[in-house]
Design a protein that fits this description.
heterodimer, A: alpha+beta, six-stranded antiparallel sheet, five-stranded mixed beta barrel, globular, B: alpha+beta, PmbA/TldD fold, eight-stranded mixed sheet, five-stranded mixed β-barrel, 24 strands
Chain lengths: ~450, ~475
């Protein structure tokens, strides 16, 4: 199976809409080729590729909706899928809040797919792994990680005239370097183009950090000043988006933003927006209802400014549809999938240099929510945690557990780096800098 | 399907594979969910495709496609070989598989009332009734109720001569009430959080849950949490209910006992394990009250099957025997490293994923305490129910769990309700502090349909049997 082109995906969406015997219909077509070469203990142990295409149909009868999906694209299966969506809509009770499917709006679909991604086959991925492993094995370090590519086509059509489609590509590489003396280092790349993947540099970065973090020591639990590298910040921003940046959570009183628009809730150094249209972004510019994604300023100079919507929650709350719908049916509400935090003017070394005593965190592991409204999170540090003393990294530390309110932490931001990086996270991707935070609660450490 | 499966295998062998297997997987699902008296989602879907694994020059390759034809199968067999050859650029020791008998058979799990034959109207009516019963409680501001159904058929063949067809149906559901006030969100769920409970079987599973009957109690407890005292901080004795203990087993025994993690294959993503292969038969994992089994033959569990996705028959094995580590969860490849045969734990999340070592029904075997006696035997402590959140480090040592609800225990009696309870610990120290496990009468299988592992992330349907148990000297109320 070959991946559908944009034209093919749009044509398929239109055909499925026409096949659906309902008052209105919407079709979402996704077609992708995913490949991954995974390595551990300095050898490739998993090498996979996948090709799939899926059609999801939303049938509308008055103010009732039903959804069905299939990856069987023959005429008979598509007709059965459309009929299943209509059957579901027939069974659904009326929802007087349903505003109907959205009408078409102009969508800018820039060419964001990198041609080189299509040529990033198993041999090229193996070469990248080879370069990474060489950096580690030459220092008697064990490397693990993966080199992956995704080529994706998404199209949305509906009976009101929505007809959009777009191709995107993404490449991701991760390196975990581990030494026999407890050292652990990490490096990663996430971007649209394999040509920008510097595999040997990633391998060197992870191996150097692993060597630097050998013989980790204990840390007494308590509140510390922390410098979070961008990858650690990515987890925090991701969870803030999940918990608080949606109109639905806002309206239901589950968000730390609820009832606080216009109020300063974070440090004035914090600016967070959702912006799929930014020049550096490489994802879709429309949501899963085919609506244009708009830039939404969410936190401006620390002030709670706005939340993201979709057609349902926009109409229900009288807000503009910002184009943040997930695929129907969507019990989660709108979600911010392209979050970015504005850069500051410092380097990560300057952040470290300004700390008398604190902790440097490369990244977090297994973060989860303890209390949703203050966005209290718990998780572990991983792959490079260091004590900072008199402006310099000193002792490597064992992995530390934190239990910390994320909103309170971003209210204690003292400095922001100018360097930022993309990370793929639980919800979409984020573009974030490193942060210096005055107080961060560590509550335990690994055994 | 047999012709199709062997077309893929033969194409791989012709291109030089030393071993090949192929799986055609056909699945169907349906989800219905309600929130605040409104139907939020009615969704059905199906998926059909084929995946082919091949070993060439000592390395693995895998290719998959939703195009299920003889021509596509042959092309995938060839593609898997080409990918495996690329792996050889950074090869390790040649892949070697533990022996397994060749089977030509079929296995089907029992299913009572076909859940796909029950009308959507009946499913919606059940959910709306449960949802309405929760909304009768004024302090409850958000309610959720959902049902889900899943059916899968697999057709597996290998170059060693196996051809196995198998199928089963799963049914699950649950309800949640959220009391929201003044910046607090407090949740109660039934029969479990994070997707409810899931079992193999048909609509009789859902009827057995009695969602409507439990709704008033769930709502009442959510409302009561609003005015409950915060969980105290300190070190105390802790009794954990079966559902939370199932997740504790999952995170701090099931995952660390996966031999691929022990060997480092998952290091870069989910992490490794504090266990080593030399710990087998040596490590004191827990107290004498802790015996843990991995059992793919538990009737009605979503961790059960006839054969795993390498064609290894379902088995019951002991991971921990009276506190001592005695087994790992294994694959044919990893079992070689401990000089054993596979205990059949390889499963894939569909046709488009390779099999990984996954839990089956990993259970804390019951003890002999009644719950009332255990409570009466506890002078002071806390009792916690129903998971709210979980986190554990990359070696599965330092964990922290939050629960939906807790009660203080004073002089052998459950007393004051507490909100936002949590506890933390270090895995072997925690399991060695277990001094009592409740009996078979309190033991239940908890289906967990959302276990994530691997890259690309795969979601496995696993399960855990557990009854309430007591742990001495546990740190609670972290960050409270």
């Amino acid at each position: 199976m070959s991946r559908l082109t944009t034209a093919q995906a749009r044509e398929l969406a239109a055909r499925v809409v026409a096949l659906t015997e309902a008052d209105a219909a919407e079709a979402l077509v996704t077609s992708h080729e995913d490949s991954l070469t995974r390595f551990a203990e300095n050898r490739i142990h998993q090498n996979v590729t996948e090709a799939d295409a899926r059609v999801s149909v939303r049938a509308v009868l008055g103010d009732r909706q039903g959804v069905a999906s299939t990856n069987r694209l023959d005429d008979e299966s598509l007709s059965a899928c459309c009929a299943a969506a209509v059957t579901a809509a027939s069974a659904a009770p009326a929802d007087p809040n349903f505003p109907g499917l959205p009408a078409p709006e102009p969508v800018d679909t820039p060419a964001r797919a990198a041609a080189a991604a299509g040529e990033f086959g198993p041999d090229r991925r193996a070469e990248a792994v080879h370069a990474i492993v060489q950096q580690c094995s030459s220092r008697l370090i064990k490397a693990a990680g993966g080199v992956a590519s995704t080529l994706q086509t998404v199209a949305v059509g509906n009976s009101l005239g929505v007809d959009v489609g777009m191709e995107t590509t993404s490449v991701r590489a991760t390196v975990l370097a581990r030494t026999d003396r407890g050292g652990s280092g990490w490096a990663s790349y996430h971007g649209p183009d394999p040509a920008k993947l510097a595999a040997d540099t990633l391998g060197d970065e992870a191996a150097t950090l692993a060597q630097r973090s050998e013989y980790p020591t204990d840390l007494e639990p308590g509140a510390y000043t922390v410098v979070l590298a961008p990858e650690a910040v990515a987890d925090i921003v991701d969870f803030l988006g999940y918990l608080g940046f949606s109109t639905r959570a806002f309206e239901e009183g589950r968000s730390f933003m609820s009832g606080r628009l216009g109020e300063r809730i974070m440090s004035e150094l914090v600016n967070i927006s959702d912006d799929a249209l930014a020049p550096e972004a490489f994802g879709l510019t429309f949501d899963f209802e085919g609506m244009p994604k708009r830039r939404v300023p969410i936190i401006e100079n620390g002030v709670a400014t706005d939340v993201v919507t979709d057609s349902y929650w926009g109409a229900r709350t009288g807000r503009e549809n910002t184009g943040h719908a997930l695929p129907a049916p969507n019990p989660y509400g709108p979600m911010a999938l392209d979050l970015k935090m504005d850069p500051g003017d410092a380097t990560i070394d300057e952040l470290i240099g300004s700390v008398e005593r604190g902790v440097y965190v490369s990244r977090f592991h297994y973060v989860n929510v303890e209390d949703p409204v203050p966005a209290t999170l718990t998780g572990m540090t991983r792959d490079g945690t260091f004590l900072i003393e008199d402006g310099a990294l000193t002792a490597p530390l064992k992995n530390q557990r934190f239990t910390q309110g994320a909103v309170a932490a971003l209210n204690a931001v003292r400095a922001v780096t100018r360097e930022r990086a993309f990370f793929d996270v639980m919800l979409g991707s984020v573009l974030v800098p490193g942060l210096l935070i005055d107080t961060w609660e560590f509550t335990g450490q690994t055994g | 399907m047999r012709d199709l499966v062997f077309a893929a295998i033969n194409a791989a062998l012709v291109k030089g594979a030393r071993y090949a297997d192929a799986r055609v997987v056909e699945s169907r699902e349906e989800k219905v969910s309600v929130a605040d008296g409104r139907v939020e989602a009615i969704e059905s879907g199906d998926s059909f495709g084929i995946g082919v694994r091949a070993i060439v020059d000592g390395s693995w390759g895998f290719a998959s496609s939703a195009e299920v034809t003889i021509e596509s199968a042959e092309r995938l067999g060839q593609q898997a070989v080409a990918i495996a050859r690329a792996s050889a650029l950074v090869a390790g020791a040649p892949i070697s598989l533990a022996e397994v008998e060749a089977y030509d058979t079929r296995w089907d799990a029992p299913c009572g009332i076909d859940p796909f034959s029950v009308s959507l109207e009946d499913k919606i009516a059940l959910l709306l009734e449960a949802d309405g019963a929760m909304r009768a409680e004024k302090a409850v501001k958000l309610t959720k109720a959902h049902l889900g159904f899943y059916r899968v058929h697999k057709y597996f063949g290998s170059s060693e001569g196996s051809y196995i067809e198998q199928g089963h149906t799963e049914s699950g559901g649950g309800i949640s009430a959220l009391a929201i006030a003044e910046g607090e969100v407090l949740t109660r769920s039934y029969p479990n959080s994070h997707g409810g409970n899931w079992l193999q079987g048909g609509f009789e599973v859902i009827r057995g849950f009695d969602l409507v009957g439990h709704a008033p109690r769930v709502a009442e407890e959510a409302a009561a949490l609003l005015t409950a005292a915060p969980c105290p901080s300190g070190v105390t004795d802790l009794i954990i209910d079966g559902s939370q203990l199932g997740l504790q087993v999952h995170e701090s025994i099931g995952h660390p006992a996966e031999l691929d993690r022990v060997l480092g294959d998952e290091a870069a993503f989910a992490g490794t394990s504090f266990l080593g292969v030399t710990d087998l038969g040596q490590l004191r994992y827990g107290s004498e009250h802790v015996t843990v089994t991995a059992d793919a033959t538990v009737a009605g569990s979503i961790g059960s099957f006839g054969f795993d996705d390498e064609g290894v028959p379902a088995q019951r094995d002991r991971l921990i025997t009276r506190g001592t580590l005695t087994g790992f969860l294994t694959s044919r490849e990893s079992a070689r490293s401990i000089s054993r045969t596979s205990n059949g734990c390889m499963r894939a999340d569909g046709w488009n994923r390779i099999p990984l070592i996954r839990m089956t029904t990993v259970s804390l075997e019951p003890g002999d305490w009644s719950f009332d006696d255990l409570m009466a035997d506890t002078d002071d402590g806390l009792y916690m129910e129903t998971n709210n959140s979980w986190s554990i480090d990359d070696k599965r040592l330092n964990f922290q769990f939050a629960c939906e609800i807790g009660w203080e225990i004073n002089n052998g009696k459950r007393t004051r309700m507490v909100k936002n309870p949590n506890y933390t610990g270090i895995t072997p120290k925690f399991w060695n502090s277990c001094d009592a496990v409740c009996s078979q009468d309190h033991w239940q299988v908890w289906g967990l349909p959302n276990c994530g592992k691997g890259e690309p992330v795969q979601i496995a349907h696993v399960a855990h049997g557990a009854s309430p148990a007591r742990f001495r000297g546990v740190r609670v109320g972290v960050g409270r």
